Amino acid sequence: MNKPASKLFHARNRHQGEYDFAALTAAHPPLATKVRPNAYGAQSIDFADAEAVMLLNQALLRLFYGLDWQLAPGSLCPPVPGRADYLHYLADLLALDNHGVIPSADILDIGCGANCIYPLIGQAEYGWRFTGTDIDEAALKAANRIVAANPGLQRSIRLRRQKNPDAVLAGVVNKNEFFHAVICNPPFHASAAEAAAGSQRKVRNLKLDSAAPLNFGGQHNELWCEGGEKAFVGKMIAESVALARQCVWFTSLVSRRENLPALEKQLRALEVAEVRVVNMAQGQKQSRFLAWSFMPAATRAQRLAK
Q: What role does this protein play (predicted)?
């Protein structure tokens, strides 16, 4: 079936409507080998084909953002339209404290991965400066290769390793650094077994051979952590207290809505000035991110004005 980019994305999201495969293949000719009519006669790709999905991502990033993007084998292949949505809604959140104007900003990306997708899109769309962190040295090397392949990005995107696999924010922010926002796409699953079961469900839903490579890929640290996203975001909340004066907004995606009450309860027990849940409707998928700030609105406005 055809796989359109939803019309329900954020208004500034470039990926509205169905994919324009004529424009995409013109921007990235290798994609043409994977484009064929679907059951309805429309041009599309096989979204169960990992190589086709990667080529589509390369075409999207080249056509809309002028980026050269090479994914390291086995790494998480992100859905570009959905990743862009997080950044557009984050821009709106920052603008609320800046008289409705999207500010220049320094962003900390927790778990940037080998694909480095948030810094790439955020820099292209808003000129933001990014510091990306990851526990995987190989992922950081792959991300650095992407940055190096695109002239000018090394001035706007820097990457550093989180040396403590049990920490989220602790140890990656220097004492004199300041960020306007932290973003995070936490590991979804709570265990390797749960991640494997989820992968097998996707294999069955896509009617793939059980030995076929997954179209989205992903290393274990990208897909799961002990306790899943609830534990990961909970740890991030606990560690954010020490950085209360060094960041305007802390944010994280929360894929499972049922995890929100416990996380909001944890935040209410701290001296946070504001908590927001920002909902994002992406077609049939409902997504959201949790945002919190230790700074009152007046202080946030002062910091963003600088």
A: Specifically methylates the adenine in position 1618 of 23S rRNA.
